[in-house]
Amino acid sequence: MPQHEFYVDRLRSVMVALVILHHTAITYGAIGGWFWREVEPSGSPSGILLMLFCTTNQAYFMGFFFLLAGYFTPASLERKGYARFIGDRFLRLGLPLLAFVLILGPLTSGIVSLAQGDGFWPAIRSIWQHKQIINGPLWFAQALLIFSLLYSAWRAIFGPLLIRSDLSPRPLPDQRWWLMGALGVAATALAIRQFVPVSQNVFGLQLGYFASYIFLFAAGIAAWRYDWLRQLGWKQARPWFFTLVIVWPSLPSHRGRASGASQRRFRSAQQAFV
Q1: Are the C-beta atoms of 154 and 73 separated by less than 8 Å?
Q2: Number of C-alpha atoms within 13 angstroms, CB side, residue 10?
Q3: 244 with 228: CB under 8 angstroms?
Q4: How far is Cα 60 from Cα 54, in angstroms, rounded to an integer?
Q5: pLDDT in tens, 56-94
Q6: Cα–Cα distance between 58 and 56 in angstroms, integer?
Q7: Helices 251-273 and 45-58: crossing angle, nearest 10°?
Q8: Distance between CA atoms of residues 99 and 89, nearest Å
Q9: Which candidate in 25, 137, 193, 255 could, as Cys together with 208 as Cys, close a disulfide (CB 3.0–4.6 Å)?
């Protein structure tokens, strides 16, 4: 394995730990959709800190996973070929997703219903009668499976042949291109949320977040093809780091104005989810 991929694995491990902390924060007072709440969201100091933690995470951390997934996808496809790659995606992503939808999702919902005093089996019967599909945290596997299939189709129709697709190192795009990309993602996300608000699921996916997910998955593919990660350094990251330092402190004021409506939306989503 090339040396530069070891730090990617470490980053991925850190992000997995962050996902666990994120859902733990939701359990104990932050806003968000999850199976169980020990503490409801509130304006208490601890609640505000947990909301700020989750809101900050939501701005980037799942997009980061899609970036890494996109980075490793082309090499996997070229090494395995279309048939083996697609079969592997269904095995690694589709099978766990199916297991959660058929077993773990209903089981978890039944346990939550039992703890709330509504009974285990009534919840299970309701799920089957209404044909509810509970994908839970496996929504990421569902989305990544869709992205992988779409990339395979695009590659087969429009992309270079697998046997002719060598790396083509290119310089990192100028900062203004990243700025234009960020503005484009923001505008697209805003447009999507006019029709599919945040916390509203479509086939188990919150499409309001998918503008950044799609962009970052594609950016990951380009990063592998053009060898951008090797070129990435403090010089390229510095402007965005200082932008973060300047903008991030304003987040609590925006969060405070929107927290009431957000809590109501997320409570409604949680009830539908569970």
Answers
A1: no
A2: 5
A3: no
A4: 10
A5: 998 899 999 999 999 999 999 999 999 999 999 999 999
A6: 5
A7: 80
A8: 15
A9: 193
Q: Which residues pair with 229 in a beta bridge?
A: none
Amino acid at 199: S
Could you tell me if 274 and 35 are in contact, meaning their C-beta atoms sit under 8 angstroms apart? yes
Residue 57 has phi, psi (to 5 degrees) of -60, -45
For the record, the structure tokens of 58 come out as: 């939501």
3-state secondary structure (DSSP) of residue 177: helix
Strand partners, 202: 205
Retrieve residue 63's tokens.
């997009």
Residue 48 tokens, joined? 């505000």
Which pair of tokens denotes residue 150?
């779409």
| pTM given for the model | 0.86
Average of per-residue pLDDT values in the chain: 87
Degrees, nearest 5: CA angle 31-37-39: 80
Q: What are the CA-CA distances from residue 174 to residues 179, 212, 252 (Å)?
A: 9, 19, 31
Asked whether the beta carbons of 119 and 113 are under 8 A apart, the reply is yes
Query: Quick one: DSSP state of residue 196?
Result: S
Q: What does each C-alpha distance from 29 to 35, 48, 109, 257 come to in angstroms?
A: 13, 8, 20, 17
Q: What is the dihedral of CA 13, 88, 218, 53, to 10 degrees?
A: -30
pLDDT digits (tens, 9 = 90+) for 154-183: 999 987 777 666 678 889 999 999 999 999
Query: How far are the Cα atoms of 158, 216, 220 from residue 67, in angstroms, in the given order?
Result: 21, 5, 5
- Distance of alpha carbon 183 from alpha carbon 196, whole angstroms: 20
Helix (H, G, I), strand (E, B) or coil at 202: strand
